[in-house]
Amino acid sequence: MTADLSRFELDVRFAETDLMGIVHHATYLVYFEAARVDWLKKRGAFYQDWAALGAHLPVAEVKLRYKKPARFDERLVVETRLVEAKRFSLRFAQEALRSGELLCAAEVLLACVGDDLALRRIPDELAAVLGRGELARE
Amino acid sequence: MTADLSRFELDVRFAETDLMGIVHHATYLVYFEAARVDWLKKRGAFYQDWAALGAHLPVAEVKLRYKKPARFDERLVVETRLVEAKRFSLRFAQEALRSGELLCAAEVLLACVGDDLALRRIPDELAAVLGRGELARE
Amino acid sequence: MTADLSRFELDVRFAETDLMGIVHHATYLVYFEAARVDWLKKRGAFYQDWAALGAHLPVAEVKLRYKKPARFDERLVVETRLVEAKRFSLRFAQEALRSGELLCAAEVLLACVGDDLALRRIPDELAAVLGRGELARE
Amino acid sequence: MTADLSRFELDVRFAETDLMGIVHHATYLVYFEAARVDWLKKRGAFYQDWAALGAHLPVAEVKLRYKKPARFDERLVVETRLVEAKRFSLRFAQEALRSGELLCAAEVLLACVGDDLALRRIPDELAAVLGRGELARE
Predict the structure, then answer these.
(1) Which segments of chain B does DSSP mark as H helices, in order?
(2) DSSP letters of C1-20?
(3) Is B73 labeled as catalytic in the residue annotation?
(4) DSSP state of B16
(5) DSSP A119
(6) B interface toward A at CB cutoff 8 Å?
(7) pLDDT tens for each residue of B69-127
(8) Cα-flanking dihedrals φ and ψ of residue A131, to 5°?
(9) Nearest CB neighbour to B25, from listed D22, D29, D63
């Protein structure tokens, strides 16, 4: 596993399915968001910390490709990689997999904004953790 | 139509169904909330106004009885009645109906809290509109 | 208004916001889906009809660009255009607007699949309505 | 831990909060549902098994009391107890806790229905597991 990769597991909830019997396509954005939060936490960057610095990371752009459907109660793994870190933005590549099979791939561009929702530089405290691999878990 | 009653229409969205092909039971809380917002607006009480007064109305208790399922793209009507207004709380009775048939009934207790989420009296400006019927629409 | 364009109105629900006080980015997929359902209905194509033909239109790819945040209780308009109709797929361009200001733009590719979720041709009955403008409302 | 009790852990997702900065009240129904699915699985009853028997357990009634708000990224524990098993229904008592503090309490009545959504007896195969404690995990 390279330093920029983390894996996040989840079980599909009943409420996340739709009448076609599969996970609704909007749900993957929720999964990918949870996986990015996990990616940052595993490197020591907690939401509360950077929100306290007045920095937020809303989604600016996203591309999603849906390859296979997921179903209720399946165990999925989301693989998340940081593929680009600029002064005002981060780009992640993410994949939702089931037993190694790709279900949905995403490319997500996050912009760094302040409490006023205007663009601002990524705080040094946050930028510093981005090159890290996962911290050892105590 | 009595003064305390308002009706709110909505169309069931695809994303609101689950794998049983029916509206997921948690969705009704979203419908009922939207109908209460509408009830207040029709009497001249806009969320922004009372939020500016530092008053919020989170749900403190709710009872739901599910009688019949709703399905994708059905037109539902939510009937909302204020059944009790106290100094710190409001109680609404709500019903989701399809062509007059009861699908789900709710009793919802809202507590009035401040920006700190502590209990506070309902502001006079808000209390004043509760006895009103719907305002005429321009 | 050209034949391929339809407009769909909605009011932002409280439950659709997140802790940043804005509409959560996944919610736009729900809005855009509702607007496509409306687009098809306005041309005489009801979900029940083509589902009865064993045809479904899941999302295969989507690109979203978020330009401005939307907030609770705002009235949004979603403009939907069919930009490409092939034998197995449809491509829509959609925009969520507030008072004419662009909030979020989407490009959505739908694949036509059967009850078994395998690719199939778009049924003639459905293809026939795609070139239509909105039907007159009775 | 008594035989009828199971614990289910979850982390609050960003998308589950609302503009008040707390977990939206409808979200708890999703949490409680996931915890009941987990309760059944820990006793050997998988959704796929009883769905294959043509048995479903939709929510017929629910009472919720909201005591304290939960916030983004908090670790919650849902405690689930079966408090009544009848021929056509099950009643669960559930609590969402944070570090032992009660946030939300629920009483949930499930009805057993067939594929046609009409009431039916709980299948023996399912009834048999209800008195069990959690199975040992391999």
Answers:
(1) 27-41, 47-52, 124-130
(2) --TTEEEEEEE--GGGB-TT
(3) no
(4) G
(5) B
(6) 14-15, 17-19, 21-22, 24, 26, 71-72
(7) 999 999 999 999 999 999 999 999 999 999 999 999 999 999 999 988 899 999 998 89
(8) -80, -10
(9) D29
